[in-house]
User: Fold these one by one.
Assistant:
Number 1:
Amino acid sequence: MNARTTPSPPHAATPAPPGRPTNDPGRALLTITQRPDTVFVDGRGSWLVDEQGKRHLDLVQGWAVNSLGHSPAVITHALAVQAQRLLNPGPAYYNRPMIDLAERLADLTCFDRVFLASSGAEANEGAVKLARRWGSRKRGGAHEIIGFEHGFHGRTLAMMSASGKPGWSSLYPPMPAGFAKARFNDIGSVERAISPHSVAVMIELVQGEAGVVPADPGFVRELRALTAEKGLLLIVDEVQTGIGRCGRGFAYELYGVEPDVMTLAKGLGGGLPLAAMLCKEHLNCFEPGDQGGTFCGNPLMAAVGLAVVNEVCRTDFLEGVRARAQQLSIALQAIVRDHALVAERGAGLLRALVLPDDRADRVVAAARDLQPVGLLLNAPRGHLLRLMPALTISEAEIDEAMRLLRRALGDANGASGTGMPT
């Protein structure tokens, strides 16, 4: 019997577990989230195509990951070229893409040193480790990180403790200690959270999982002044806001401050697992062996990151992002008026619609089910829709997305019997 007629291995016919439908495409996957049955097989730019051939206009883009859209030529080319040269010599050796990406990031920012990693949570853990190492040397063992209510920094145990997402503190007890919480946009609460054990304040300049809540510029300036006065580090988590997402190379540029540490991920890899932690020279205090990772700085990912950064951080590209962001904001404001919603908000091409009630999941489902073309949205909270389109989305695609969103709002309102205008 030749290879073409060899029967499928026994596991291919494994029955679905009890309580799971046999037609569930994810029946062999560990349950971590509720996914629709749609299986995507192709993507180009702002569009995804499923196994049935239906096209979907994607305003989620892997949760702000695909900064250049799906399968952009700049990334596929960088991958193809680097894959034929060197994949991973190991983190104990230099490689050219690692060096080039680190130098490019340093040149584009106010930072001097770069640690490359694979995920936002890993980069944020690196920032906490760095702050604590610095605190052990410069501040008598100070180690506590002050974060913010409703903040989000990742899904490792330590980053769940650092986050302020409701319910997380009791999900996997006992949780790591050493993380205090203040209220976002409330400088007085930060002052009250400072103790002799404090070493740093960690903040998202736009709280993404909380529903795209930007920090107030005055609050950020006060926070920078307060941390400098108290000798604390200011860590900005730009995992979601960095690499052009907010219309500048990095969101801290919008606030006119210089942080001590910054973390990046998501858009840095343009769809691939890549992250970075950047710091000022005086924080370059790790000893060899203190920090690392098998895939940290591997040339394949670093080559992609360099290609993405060189594309996004061009002046003309960022001007285009700001133009599309203005177009999207104006269109969303019109939808707020026409559909009696609460508000739209955000920065650059990271935006949210605030709904008057908890109908966001219905809108997401209605948008996905539209025919003949679907629309992909995200609902971080029951009353919030988050929009994170590719930075390359066109003027015409934004117009089409808004037309589809209006239809989805109408369908969801009709299903709920609200009688809201459509």
Note: Confidence is low (pLDDT under 50) at residues 1-14, 417-422.
Number 2:
Amino acid sequence: MKVGCIGLGDIARKAYLPVLGGLPGVELHVQTRTPATLARVADGLHLPEERRHSDLDSLLGQDLDAAFVHAPTTVHPEIVTRLLEAGVPTYVDKPLAYELAHSARLVELAEQRNVSLAVGFNRRYAPGYAQCADHPRELILMQKNRIGLPEEPRTMILDDFIHVVDTLRFLVPGPVDDVTVRARVEDGLLQHVVLQLAGDGFTALGVMNRLSGSAEEILEVSGQDTKRQVVNLAEVIDHKGQPTVRRRGDWVPVARQRGIEQVVGAFLDAVRAGKVLSARDALATHELCEQVVRAVQEQAA
């Protein structure tokens, strides 16, 4: 199975390439326009010269079975369009694009060509989060905070807050009939944002504070007098009277803890089975992010 990885930045090097490079039956090809990065990463993976590519044309000439796109978001539309037009099942690191119209166009193109398109919402596959789907969820609270990183609203929401948005969508137990957004913007930079989703019998809150003094990610789901808390995707604490703590095992890889191994496996299994994956649900997350962006811009005006 020939698999291409386009873009060799931090996420590719830390999360995806260690997984892809160790999969049996996968012939990995890598592509970046930066010669020094190409040599360093390919050397680390012990890839022969014929699996190293400095341009997309060279990579597409390998008759790929699947591709992973980890290039900067600004070039996603161009790269993904070429892959889909070539009939290559494609996995894209989130977001599909910064502009909703571009994301929608890519999803429509995939459907027109009957080619798989998947977006990297790995938290849906992270064991701690996936297990929360089996817990009562009358109230859902997710915080993803950073230290000293206020940012332009669209970039922050589509690059980072999108994980919070998608996790809430994944965990809400029914249709959402009310969306509320609150935010603080100073000098054009988004400092914090709060998203509330509500429906029949449930409320979900997503929070991101870029001036929180702490880099943390905490998910809590509660209902029927019980609560489950997941801290930094590694520690699961069940509260029912006395708390019970389950920590990530010392030998559990970070990629497995964060759902990277699982989402890569699910995508490649679908490709092997000839199953065409739709990105329609991922597009719904992008649509909700666009709603958040517009609400923040209106509040900042």
Note: Residues 25 and 120 are 22 Å apart (CA to CA).
Number 3:
Amino acid sequence: MIKKVIFIVFLLLNFTSFSQNSNLSEKSIVSILTCGRGDELYTTFGHTAIRIKDSINNLDVVYNYGAFDFRTPNFYLKFIKGNLQYFINASSYDDFMLEYQYENREVIEQTLSFSLLKKQELFDLLNASLFSEERSYTYKFIDKNCTSMAVDKINKIIGEKLIQKVDDKSISYRELLYPYFENHFYYKLGINIIFGAKTDCKAEKLFLPIELMHSLSKVKINGKPLVTKTETKVKGAELDNSFSFISSIYFIITLLILIVITNRKSIFFTYLFITGLLGLFISLVGFYSLHEELSWNYNALLFNPLFLIIPFIRRKWFKKVTIVCFGMIIIYVITIQTKPHLLLMLPFIGATSYILYMLLKKTS
């Protein structure tokens, strides 16, 4: 164990010494690695990293702004709160690629046409981040992530915001993200329930790896393309498109139909109580979290916290609260009618409206 620690410290000191005292050679190369999607939720949108290679100095290092530590105390609470610290790390190119080769995730490399001066400037800038307080940053889903951080560094050495989004800016963030969950139904359902109004704004910010790849291919400096070479380093496997009834909207519809046809007040009250808990959760998270994507969540109009009290109130108040809930569902339907997750929410709208109607009918 001691030998391992000594080796790691020795390696770190050598790298630090090189980064601070050595210059890149004319044969050095700067490139952007765009990594494909994976099966885990945090890999759903892919990844961006910066590679600097210099065969003369025997250097081949990848800088990654998407690192985080699962061992962070209260990891999930900090992630929900929006104050989880991500950080930049550096690894050898071979070590970086091992994960993507093992998981058969696509990796595309775009070589950038920078002068030696700009390559050195970027190299120094990345190392300054690596060995300073800039190493850590507060992760924000849209505003600050591995892709936006890489864009900021490259734009900084260019001297202007040359890298801009070229993909469709007329669609919303929700519409942009929707296709990413085609093979993960419950991710899609959960994300669209917990995301609030900000994700319905126009997707004008460049924050996805694939968007950066598209944008880089369009950038020109002094009339010349910034990207001189595009190469697929790992082809990547096809995502599993096999149908699963359990992981589909049809399972949810079947479950809701079974709840509805029981026609039992106890089951109806249980359904409303559970959906009310969900509504209370997304409402509280909206106030608690610093993630703007979670605030002003109109889905609480459908998964209504008022449902929590319906099983426990008397007839007079029951009728008033139920009518209010009906009104909120109508407002919700009007709000969501142009949103991409309308079809996803329709079974819940139908089932909840029917249950409220039947309970109102039974108690009148």
Note: Residues 1-14 have pLDDT under 50 and may be disordered.
Number 4:
Amino acid sequence: MNEYTIVVPDSQVLSCVCGTNDNNLRLIEEHLGTTVFTRGNELSVDTEDSSVREKFQYIIDRVVDEINDIPYSGSVNYQDIIASVLNIEKKADLESTSIIVPGAVKKIYPRSQNQADYILSMRTNDLVFCYGAAGSGKTFLAVAEALKLLLSHQKKKLIISRPVVEAGENLGFLPGALEDKINPYLRPLYDSMNALLPHETVSRLMDAQMIEIAPLAYMRGRTLSDSVIILDEAQNTTREQMKMFLTRMGENSKVFITGDITQIDLPKKIPSGLLHATGLLQGIQGIGMIRLTAEDVVRNPLVKKIVRAYENEKE
């Protein structure tokens, strides 16, 4: 026997993977071109073909990961989840679309074709704009790729920034030191880092100044070299702020810019720097532009329906 076996310890998750009368496994078998055997809490394929084994591992890891992220419900169509994973695996190179963060507990995989394209764009371009719906993974994937570059010593520093325009507040009037003032606005980025790495690791990197919090208003005059820089909530930059930020980019740096053009908080007469930049810089070699939609949302399934409803209303 030349079996390759994967253990799925959670019996409820295993049941979701297999489906009623093993219907879900039939989809996986058809995709792999070989039979999938079940014994207890194990799934196995009988093959020496390393490419089939790699695909099998990828598919089961991805499906289990997605099922674990969705609260168990009889209304969830797990066959659709499996079909989506199979479709991504078919189109994408596994090594180039997974993110392995040193010290993280698991690999990060794209959950849609657009997310796979986003990861590839971050690998092949020095400047990437990603705009899309809430929950579509634009910030999380940027943070994962940035941490991978930092912790694999490809970059010396991770710099994270965002404009502060919410609720009409001004940094100068908020209590505490600069970091205390900006921290609430950067909470989504902190949450992403802590979801990928132990809290102690994130704290250590910040204490060593390998991760820097840099409010957008304080970046003028700097040159950011040998770094990976994330600008989040970029829809709330002005045209002048975006130009200033883009021209901070130094030698051997990568810049990931994320935002949601449906959530612009600027005064009505002030145009969004993100909208202006994505139009002005379209087609320039070395600049990637990715749009994520409701189909890429990976939060509670209800969020996808909400985002889709708003997208359809605008159409």
Note: The mean pLDDT is 84.
